[in-house]
Amino acid sequence: MPAPQDKEYWQLLRASSHATLAKIWKAGRAGEELPPDDELLYRAMLEHEEWHALWDSLEYVAGKDLTIDGVSPVAHVSMHAVIETQYRNAAPPEVVETIDRLVRSGLDRHEAVHRVGRVMSRFLWDCLQNQRPFDLEGYRQALRKLG
Q: How would you label 100-122 residue by residue, b for 16+ Cβ within 10 Å and e otherwise?
């Protein structure tokens, strides 16, 4: 894993991510059938109407830092897709249990995904910052406690 200060690597990664999302957005808007993983990203992009103008221009800003109000829309919808993939695959099963429990308690499903995503983000951040393996058991425990 490159060091956080390796700006060239991160700029290339950002450009690649932006280009991929731009293609998915354009294909989805054109009504094209998308592969399942791309469909998850497209749905997450659609759910965030506040960023639709950004998605429309994503190919023109490839590689730029797109933080808006302290949030990276690209990372945000990518996290949505990760959580939805975990839900779809029930891996770990606590993701399904947690989202379903939060929805049963009256929370909107979108917000339930956000809450699980915030937990996942904390564990990913720790993993990347400290260059250690992802703490799956800690993630599972945190999900069980999420309310």
A: ebbeeeebeeeebbbbbbebbee
Q: Are 41 and 21 in contact (CB under 8 A)?
A: yes
Burial degree of 4 (CB within 10 A; 0-12, 13-18, 19+) = exposed
Counting the structural domains of the chain, the total is: 1
Domain containing 13 equals: 1-64
Q: What is the pLDDT of residues 68-93, one digit of tens each?
A: 888 889 989 999 999 999 999 999 99
What's the number of CA atoms in the CB half-sphere (13 Å) around residue 90?
3
Omega into 92 within 30° of 0, i.e. cis?
yes
The pTM of the whole model exceeds 0.90: no
